[in-house]
Here is the input.
Amino acid sequence: MTLMELPPWVIFLAGLVIIVLGAELLLRGASRIALLLGIPPIVIGLTIVSVGTSAPELAVGLAAAAQGKGALAVGNIAGTNMLNILFIMGLSALIRPLPLRLLSIRLDVPVMIASAAVLVAMSADRVITRVEGLVLVGAAVPYTIALIYLSRRESASARREFAADYRPELLVSPPGAELPGRRGPAMAWNAVLLGVGIALAVLGAELLVSGAIDIATALGVSDAVIGLTIVAIGTSAPELATTLVATWKNDRDVAVGNLVGSSIYNVLVILGITCAASPGGAELTAGILLVDLPLAALVAIVCLPVFRSGRMVSRREGGAFVLAYLLYLGSLLVWRS
Here is the structure.
């Protein structure tokens, strides 16, 4: 029996496990290569970590686009962003209230709102074209430049926090690679990790999308709903793990920054690349156009007053976020499955 002859749920779970493993290796390899090249730790934390934890979404998006399942790709992004902000951030705040960096309020949240609003506007004709995908990717460049520039002006404590999480002496390399003059073996080892991570992410995405489509067909559920639920939850595993560990370690800037940064890069980079790589762009269902994308934009807008209220996400606000996501998830299963 070949792998593709297994039940769809087994294929889906196998793809999920492989894609999470691949994302972890990809993230480790990329961040460690950056460190070996002398890129500042805070830049790594705010860019590579955010993009790296979104690698499963990119792999799934490209796989879905290749199979002509644009609704699944867009639904995955909308569902993932709502899961990131409402459920994962809310759960993190329930564990421990989340104080916020001023940079998140002044830059990240407005950019998150703007990217969500632009996505709604682009979707008005029920398709996100290749050109619009390229526009999204292009918009990520000035945001990243502004993020790096303003982050360098952040407090020394924030820089120390990122440095503690991504310091070069913690790199895992072949024996002796950490010694002076042995940077070459460390670079080669982490390049291997990066390559293996990319390969696993691609393989896992193919399996996950294939299993999800088969599950949707068997249950009579649309690709969009599967993307908004099962696939979104599955591909958010890196964000969930990163955020909960950061919260448990009391590295709360990492927790919030990773989620907000991932939500922005999901739209600008992940969805942008997905649409740009698809000849016909990504076609949308009426449900995604009229319900899910506007809701994702509303969630981004709600973050602004919440973040400004004492510059903290309280346990009560976290509980409200989690409840809102569970209500949304329940409505999906009841009304659109």
Summary: Confidence is low (pLDDT under 50) at residues 165-180. The chain has one domain: 3-335. Residues 3-335 form a domain with the A middle domain of Talin 1 fold (CATH 1.20.1420.30). The first strand starts at residue 98 and ends at 99.
